[in-house]
Amino acid sequence: MARESEQAIEHLFRKEYGKLVSVVTHFFGPSYIQLAEDVVQETLISALSNWSTQGIPENPQAWLFQVAKRKVLNEIERGKMMQRHEGQLLSATYDDIDLEVVFLDDEIQDSQLRMIFTCCHALLDTKSQIALTLKTLCGFGVKEVARALLSSESSINKSLYRAREKIRNSQTPFDIPQGEELNKKLEAVSLTMYLLFNEGYNSSVGDSVIKKELCWEAMRLTKLLVDHFQDNKNLLALLALMSLHAARFEARIDNRGAIVLFEDQDRSLWNKELINVGMHHFNRSLNAGQLSAYHIEARIAAEHCLSTSFESTHWQLIYDQYLLLQQLKPNPVIELNLAIIQSQIGSIESSLSQLEKLSQRQSLRDYHLLSVTQGVFNMKLRNYEQALSYFRQSLKQKPSKKEVMFIMNKMDECEKLLPKH
Amino acid sequence: MNHLSPDDLQDIMAAYKGWVEQLGANYLGGQRLEDSGTMLRSKKESVLTDGPFLEAKEIIAGYFLIQAHDQQEATEIALSSPHLGLYSIEVRPIAFPKMK
After folding, report:
1. What is the bridge-based pairing of β-strands B89-91 and B38-40?
2. Which of A159, A276, A310 to mutate to test the interface with B (most CBs of B within 10 A)?
3. Same domain? B70 vs B39
4. In chain B, is it the N or the C terminus that has fewer CB atoms within a 10 Å radius of its CB?
5. Cβ distance of B56 and A340 shorter than 8 Å
6. Across all residues in chain A, what is the average pLDDT?
7. Do B48 and B16 sit in the same domain of this protein?
8. Domain containing B15: what range?
């Protein structure tokens, strides 16, 4: 098969995998996520072998759904046989949902929503929630999940296995929660989506293509949630903040793959369409009963996206938003941000003295970004000797590979600027 | 999706400001946290180091409100949280609103 159609098929498979697994799980029940994944896997394998000889069918999605349905029926037959022979029970309640119905267009979306709530089950730790989401809803292979979460394949396999076990043992129905329960569950789901996005956005470690994919998937699933729960303002604020951050994607890394500081980013590379979309979501998120952290963060991101230059940024406003955030959830990283913004609304010296105070804190003592910031600010004040010692310190605090590259560059600059003896 | 004009954008920002002001002191349901408490580290050593706290720009801001008799009981409850293992949790008593 030509390389081009191979890529098209890979893309199609990834897109359809999550839908199919959700639909088949809806049919079998959440105790059989693994079985659903196997059925879908087999469907894709038959597609591959069939299409490579017969060519890609006119409607590949319909083809996949048809074959998946047949395999589901085979599984049920096999289940009945096993039941007769070994007394094993697949489940006797399949007649409740008509197989044709779960494969209807409207139901596919619904099944995916149920799958999201299942993956974000309260019994699972965050890492397992994210791993299971990527595996079942986003069509990631175990290898890709491992790469995305900076883990090994065997440890991802183990955590996926345990997650499926926990879901099976909890006997949770494959439902969209209702009433009071719904708001609580939506909060948990939002947090997982937020962390999934952060996983892709925050780190400069790992495969950047996979990382970007994490962000798009977090946004796609959040969009699904937003479309369904239209009155939920926090979800809208979350989608707004994701869109506004994603808009700056291309400008954050230069063409050699190195980190570009916010101050030095080429603003013409920011995605205007995503900023526009983000602002629409932000607008719809307003006037909720309570202020959420997502709202505040979206407001900060909006300020950055709409400022025409680093210098013209309304720093006092951003400072005030961080203060709100600090009240909502006191956190040393927010204090660090406040200290950094101090350099914009006050002076670099006052910012440095606050950073010095923060560096005495237990929780920030080994935080390499703090030392890097101290180094960069000292450079601005032409204290190159001092800057070098902060950069050296930061290298001992486990920065990522890309960050090491950045720090080494800065150290070179300092060396060159030091007065010659 | 319609393209927002600069005026539209200003309106949105103004609407946000008006809304937050209108919420006033009640924006958190009148609660804020005391400045000191217990900081829990991860239960296990082998955890992902690449969490959302990495970059100074993006911050996770979520909290769970729990009811407990004292700090110790609260800490025990927090220890059972599924989020612990990947993230640190701070346990803090809620401050009673101070009248100005």
Report:
1. antiparallel
2. A276
3. yes
4. C
5. yes
6. 88
7. no
8. 1-28
The DSSP annotation for A31-62 comes to GGHHHHHHHHHHHHHHHHHHHHHH---SSHHH
Whether residues B40 and B24 fall in one domain: no
Q: Which residue has the tokens 């701070």?
A: B90
- Reported as a single tens digit per residue, the pLDDT across A161-203 is 999 999 999 988 999 999 888 988 898 899 889 988 988 886 6
Look at residue B100 and tell me if it is in a domain: no
B90 contacts on A by Cβ (under 8 Å)? 330-331
State which amino acid sits at residue A81: M
CA dist., res. A148 & res. A139, Å (int): 13
Tell me the nearest-neighbour CA distance from B24 into chain A, angstroms: 10
pLDDT at position A115 is 96
Give how many domains chain B has, as a whole number: 2
Please report whether residue B85 resides in a domain. yes
The structural domains of chain A, with segments of one domain joined by +, span 366-421
Look up residue A405 and give its two tokens: 């590259």
**Predicted complex ipTM:** 0.77
Contacts of A262 in chain B (CB under 8 A): 57
> Measured between CB atoms, does B79 come within 8 Å of chain A?
no
Residues B52 and B41 grouped into a single domain? yes
Judgement on whether residues B21 and B41 belong to the same structural domain of the protein: no
Mind listing the pLDDT tens digit for each residue in A240-286?
999 999 998 888 877 777 777 788 888 999 999 999 999 999 999 99
Q: Is residue B64 included in any domain, yes or no?
A: yes
- Report pLDDT digits (tens) over A125-164: 888 999 999 999 999 989 888 888 878 899 999 999 999 9
Q: How many CB pairs under 8 A join A and B?
A: 131
Residues B16 and B39 in one domain: no
Separation CA A39–CA A45 (nearest Å): 10
Give yes or no: residues B76 and B47 share one domain.
yes
Instruction: Verify that B15 and B41 share a domain, yes or no.
Output: no
In whole angstroms, give the CA distance from residue A69 to residue A46: 13
